[in-house]
Amino acid sequence: MSDKLNPLLLEALDDLKAKEVVQVDVRGKSDVMDTMIIACGTSKRHVKSLAGNAVEDAKKQGFQPFGVEGMESGDWVLVDFGDTVLHVMLPETREFYDLEKLWSVEPAGRSAD
Question: Per UniProt, which keywords does this protein have (predicted)?
Answer without folding.
Answer: Cytoplasm, Repressor, Translation regulation
